[in-house]
Amino acid sequence: MESGGGRRVVVIGGGIAGSLLAKTIQFNADLTLIDPKEYLELTWANLRNMVEPSFADRSLINHRDYLTNGRIVTSAAINITDKEVLTADGRHIVYDYLVIATGHTDPVPVTKAERLHQYDAENQKIQSAQSILIVGGGPTGVELAGEIATDFPGKNVTLVHKGTRLLEFIGTKASDKSLGWLRSKKVEVKLEQSVDLNSTSDGSQVYRTSTGESIKADCHFLCVAKPLATTWLSETILKTNLDKNGRLMVDEHLRVKGRSNVFAIGDITDIPELKQGYLAHKHALVVAKNLKLLMDGGNESKMAKYEPSSSAIAIVSLGRKDAVAQFPFTTVSGRIPGLLKSGDLFVGRTRKLMGLQP
Q1: The overall pTM is greater than 0.85
Q2: Could you count the other beta carbons within 10 Å of the beta carbon of residue 336?
Q3: Beta strand pairing status for 30-35 and 8-12?
Q4: Could you tell me the strand order of the sheet in which 8-12 lies?
């Protein structure tokens, strides 16, 4: 279906931020969404999908389900000029306004059906293993360990993390509470160690750590931070707009600095705050307001400003009912914070935000 608006807006990236922006402005612009996959993935539900694949059907949302009035180009953007975006499949897509929301590099299948099949395979991997190694003690590793320990309490789970504590992106109280919870569920946690995943010889199921320890495991899951999906920008007109960490430098209106018609939202921005889904949604709604204002010929002085989040709020799920939550003035764990996130993992709320049935 063709878009109804006049000004051409191109959104690169159909993740948490880009999808909400596209959904919000689809009736105000001639809109094109460029994404290598056909669906939005609610990434904070990924780990539940591995232990309960049926959960994935609600947390994977085809772009066409919420985007009824825009073009969808299933390809990767490979270059940007002052007037158009070039894609891997050879298209040249002209824009008046451009929004970059590419998030992190995560090579996932193109279709929802293929991604669902992938979750089924990961679930079978967990089901058939008696001992499981998780490498990485950030939110992904901790939440995966919690999911497995809750749904499969008879399995031996070992988590290895190279840092001095778990969840280093938040405070020590939250780290300590998470560590205590995992150990109460018989998860073996090894800190200040790394794992050589190539140390297993053919047929062997023994992994070596940096301290010389041996860990027997039937399978492993690598849960380390994924790189930002901005490397391709270093060969484009925006190469001087990347900071030393590969993030796009933006102004208070979330415009790429020095560019009047190019915005950036989500994890790829240099905004000094925790990179979390609900903040990516805030980015999207600020830019939606600004695009509507500019497309209607409004005064730039009236553009909405984004206020970076100064409060370190974070909730990490620990299985289906528990969680650890860090708020500005306190850190709590157990069933109460679990009620906020762990049951549905905000999937129903996000589906409603996207105009869909919970």
Answers
A1: yes
A2: 11
A3: parallel
A4: 71-74, 30-35, 8-12, 97-100, 262-264
